[in-house]
Automatic annotation (TrEMBL):
<dbReference type="InterPro" id="IPR004401">
    <property type="entry name" value="YbaB/EbfC"/>
</dbReference>
<protein>
    <recommendedName>
        <fullName>Nucleoid-associated protein NE695_11795</fullName>
    </recommendedName>
</protein>
<keyword id="KW-0175">Coiled coil</keyword>
<keyword id="KW-0238">DNA-binding</keyword>
<comment type="subunit">
    <text>Homodimer.</text>
</comment>
<keyword id="KW-0963">Cytoplasm</keyword>
<comment type="similarity">
    <text>Belongs to the YbaB/EbfC family.</text>
</comment>
<comment type="function">
    <text>Binds to DNA and alters its conformation. May be involved in regulation of gene expression, nucleoid organization and DNA protection.</text>
</comment>
<feature type="coiled-coil region">
    <location>
        <begin position="14"/>
        <end position="44"/>
    </location>
</feature>
<dbReference type="InterPro" id="IPR036894">
    <property type="entry name" value="YbaB-like_sf"/>
</dbReference>
<dbReference type="Pfam" id="PF02575">
    <property type="entry name" value="YbaB_DNA_bd"/>
</dbReference>
């Protein structure tokens, strides 16, 4: 006994598979282009009322840390370290969030493991 698929299903298996492969290839190319664009961007964040400013790249690498001289207190190096950490983490969050948003928009919200 042969099973029959409802009308509109099956029939063009190879053609549908080729079309799906082309769509996947196009999506991958778009994701690579967006990734390259994002890697060129810079993200900055501040902490301590602009006392510390950190700038990171889209590659999630720290590019610079600027510290206002008036917040450098040799007796409280721990506070300065906290301010630097907070600024760097916020800049990294901004870079990661933008990448996630752009990739999600491209993939239509699909979870594509290993794609990004």
């Amino acid at each position: 006994m042969k099973a029959r698929l409802p009308q509109g299903y099956g029939g063009g298996g190879a053609a549908n598979l080729q079309q799906l492969a082309r769509q996947a290839q196009k999506m991958q190319e778009q994701m690579e282009a967006v990734t390259a664009e994002l890697e060129e961007k810079e993200y900055s964040a501040t902490s301590g009322g602009d006392a510390v400013k950190a700038t990171v790249t889209g590659k999630l690498e720290v590019k610079s840390v600027e510290i206002k001289p008036e917040v450098i207190d040799p007796d409280d190096a721990e506070m300065l370290g906290d301010l630097v950490t907070a600024a760097v983490n916020e800049a990294l969050r901004a870079a990661s969030q933008e990448k996630e948003e752009k990739m999600s928009a491209l993939s239509g919200g699909m979870n594509l493991p290993g794609m990004f």
